[in-house]
Design brief:
Elements (H helix, E strand, L loop, with lengths): L10 H51 L11 H5 L30 E4 L22 E5 L19 E4 L7 E4 L2 E3 L9 E6 L4 E5 H4 L11 H5 L2
Parallel strand pairs: 1-3
Antiparallel strand pairs: 1-2, 2-6, 3-4, 4-5, 6-7
Amino acid sequence: MTKGFSRGFTLLELLILIAFLVILASFGYPVLLSALERAKITQDLNNLRQIGLATQSYLSDNDNNLFSSGALWMSQLHPKYLPGWNVFQSPFDKRRAVESDTTSPVSYGVNANIYADPNNAMAAAKISKPIVFIFFAPGQTSAPTVTFQGIAGTGAPGVTVLGVGSNTAASSPGGNATAGPQNSRQRINAVFADVHCESLPWTVFTNNTSSASDPWAAQRWSP
């Protein structure tokens, strides 16, 4: 009677198995990163949509006038229209989330052009093209990586674009961002005055000069 036996892996077989697993991981890692990126983009859009809807409710209660320059726009939405500070923090913002009226991270900026008259709140009716006028967008710093500096209770985070052809978004606080926060820094999300959200190429987002290929670029930033 022959006794059965089992043998372990040889060193060569073990090395081949490890190499095979490494190859599988090299294919799976980019897929995982892509899935995580898509999840962040979706959450970012959801945050912006909630801020846009809350602003619509604010307008209904304030004779269709936008935020007063005498108070932080975030404090005019929180807590009455947005009970949690977490909505104001982008998933691309790596700062620790806290619920505080003074230190909660704020990643989004309002279109700073609504404060053209520092003494009076602008009427929303003055926005000539709500479907193209950017209401809110992530307000990054000028750092080479994706970073944010807005904080609840300190400053009124805003975002706009600089001069013609600058391809730069000026955000406050934090300086002038030169690339978007997503898709290898090629794109950025925004919510518009009609409360629809879009993911825009950075070059489109920072264009404020109308042309045949982009006829409403000027109205994107100027009401």
